Amino acid sequence: MPEGHSVHRIARQFARNIVGRTVAASSPQGRFVEGAEVIDGREALEVQAVAKQMFLRFDRDVWLRVHLGMYGAWDFSGDVSVDATIASSNGRMGQTNQRGTVIDDAILDAAGENSLSSIGAPRRARVRMSEQTTGLDEQTEWPPPVVGAVRLRLLTESTCADLRGPTACALQTPDEIAAVIAKLGPDPLVDDVAEGEERFTATVKKKPTAIGLLLMDQAVVSGIGNVYRAELLFRARQNPHTPGRDVPEDVVRGIWRDWARLLPIGVETGQMMTMDDLDPAAYRRAMAHRDDRHWVYHRAGLPCRVCGTTVLMEEAAGRKLYWCPSCQA
């Protein structure tokens, strides 16, 4: 499932290519026909990402809420304007299998979390932004043909956005959107960071639930998924099984501040980069390969980078939890 940085990056893509334009909306798959009819012919006015959800507002206060879930994807095609802060030369955003290559000094991660480079000026292209990866291809036919089960197509004069396989795709009123956001924990890129720290700390300190589970609870804190959960806890040297209320307050605050630091890095680079102070060669390796950019995530059975103890992996509420039993004792 894409983590918070990916959703913020996708929202930036909408801001550059869809917001401020009138869209023709359709549901080729047929599962969002009525909703598409409401959106059709309206101007997209703003986009907002909170936690792992994206909200797109159209004129007359019509809101579209999208949660990609595990398998959702947005495909952009046409004249796609993408800069270095929101996409890579291979065009894909999200997280998946990690295969990296370096081309012309651009660090490309075929897992798609990339990017230090820009695809340059608007060009006729197709860009997938999701959990899965297909890369960036030249696109000549316009409008582009419908490929696969497209829940929603948003089409401007020059750009097409196709949505496939989301967990949620719904039209909601402003009050309903506000209610959804109110149930989410603080997001460092949306909420006041200091206020967010107080909310997060107060919530964690009253919970008997293990801190490793609390960090995955979007009602406690927004945007953290499996990767960031493992890495934040390791960086804090915090045992994931400690009840939230028993975690020292300074550690809880440190986790929030670390999240507020790592999330913007993820948005700007496209990588869930969690290792600090790397030399240039190590940094390039880390940007190209996931295995070189994390402390414990996906390192089950390997020695801890700090102490050499074997990194453990266990199931926690149906998700894989990676941690070092020595550093995080």
UniProtKB/TrEMBL annotation:
The protein's matches in Pfam families, at most eight in alphabetical order, are given as: Fapy_DNA_glyco, H2TH, zf-FPG_IleRS
EC no.? 4.2.99.18
Alphabetical list of SUPFAM superfamilies matching this protein: Glucocorticoid receptor-like (DNA-binding domain) (SSF57716), N-terminal domain of MutM-like DNA repair proteins (SSF81624), S13-like H2TH domain (SSF46946)
Keywords, alphabetical: DNA damage, DNA repair, DNA-binding, Endonuclease, Glycosidase, Hydrolase, Lyase, Metal-binding, Multifunctional enzyme, Nuclease, Zinc, Zinc-finger
Uppermost EC category? lyase
Q: Which family does it belong to?
A: Belongs to the FPG family.
What is the name listed in the Swiss-Prot or TrEMBL entry for this protein?
DNA-(apurinic or apyrimidinic site) lyase
Q: Say which species the protein is native to.
A: Microbacterium proteolyticum
